[in-house]
Design a protein that fits this description.
Blueprint (H helix, E strand, L loop, with lengths): L2 H16 L24 H16 L6 H14 L2 H39 L3 H17 L1
Helix pairs in contact: 2-3, 2-4
Amino acid sequence: MPKAKADAKAADNRLKRKGAGAGRKQSKKAAKDPNKPKRPPSAFFVFMSEFREQYKKEHPNNKSVAVVGKAGGDKWKSLSDAEKAPFVARAEKKKEEYDKSILAYNKKLEGKNSEEDESDKSKSEVNDEEEEEEEEDDDE
């Protein structure tokens, strides 16, 4: 038996033992909510958005994303903390806006969940509770 065939058989046997992906179920991830606010960019990404525009003006023939990223990373590393400060400030501002929007988003979600909880009750139960509250208010 030639050596190539023996190696091929050994490889086939290994694949059979490991399963080679056959018959495995893919895990299902929870669906992403399109209404959820996007996370804010870091100071580096704020810098890169500005740097990309500047780099394109200086190098209009460049089509490589990797070259722009490499140049941006090198430039960011060479900046002092004082030079990075405006980008850090903008990133902080965007983070504060994100925090506000995510709080509003979470409150909106909680509102939907509480409405769903109430919908479990029959309408007569809800009406009974409202009447009891009105009677308590009248007694006072």
